[in-house]
Amino acid sequence: MYFVYIIICIVLFGLLIAVHEFGHFIVAKACNVKVNEFSIGMGPLIWHRQKGETQYSLRLFPVGGFCAMEGEDGDSDDDRAFSKAAAWKRFLILIAGAAFNFLTGLLIILCLYASTQAYTIPVLSGFMDGFPLEGEEYLMAGDEIIAINGRRVLLSGDITTLLTLANSDTADLTIRRNGETRILKDLPLTLRDYEENGQTVRRYGLLLTMKEATAGDRLRLGFYTAVDFVRQVFWSFEMLLNGSAGFNDLSGPVGIVQTMSQVGEASPNILAALENIFYFTAFIAVNLSVMNLLPIPALDGGRVFFLLLNSLALAVFRRQIPERFEGAVHFVGLVLLLILMGAVAVNDVYKIVT
Length: 354
Description:
The chain is 51% helix and 23% strand. The chain is an alpha+beta fold and 354 residues long.
């Protein structure tokens, strides 16, 4: 089944790319911008079909794709060129790919949660035996954990994530007790050894409440999960900056497919495997949407950044940033991005082999 899961993951990864490029494509068409080619995949051409002004292509490597618009990377005399479209139209076209990825991730999550009967909420139901911080001045059963170190707790899983991210022996917890909001400063809430089912485990010692899920809860749970996926991108950058994560923790398409396949293989049955793979697919979809909107040259976010910078330059100085300069910045950014992707891919293969 392992290789079947790999094929499923590659197909899903390719679909995410297709969705992203379709977002650019459909909004470009709606804004009357000429699209020369819409391609799924990169590299050598496998199949193509010309329909009207647009060539629809399928290329060999399922690790990318593109929506080639007239005048996107240079000047054009065509009145329907991307470069001649109004700024607001270009803005909508550029963010459309990321928006479609986010909506795809959210839709997958909502479908997965549609049958949820109960879920865990960040309200304390009790504590593990030997928990040292129970009491009026500390934590009590019934307390709702609202925030940790000033960061909002949306889902019960955020508690462990935010305590881990704090990377400290203490944390500031914002709780709601009997309708009153309190802040517990410098609470020494750390991982400790507890007994669970006859085994010693490392836990924070908190037991959380299960709640029966209503239709509204499922919608809220799905939306909060998507928002949490967005926050995890920035938390990951924070971990890279503070040194708690490194280059070896990064993954590209090869590593992502490998991880998704392992998730499927480790599941107890095929249905659970598909649910876990689709959950991971939703996570990747939302991650792609965020990463593409970061102000990095060659990515959609870099182009949006220059679009806004150009609008500001026109308003203040009545001059635009030279297209050659912007093109050079995007080219250098693309080269550096490809080098990084190549290094990550090599590292992914090395980790799989070893």
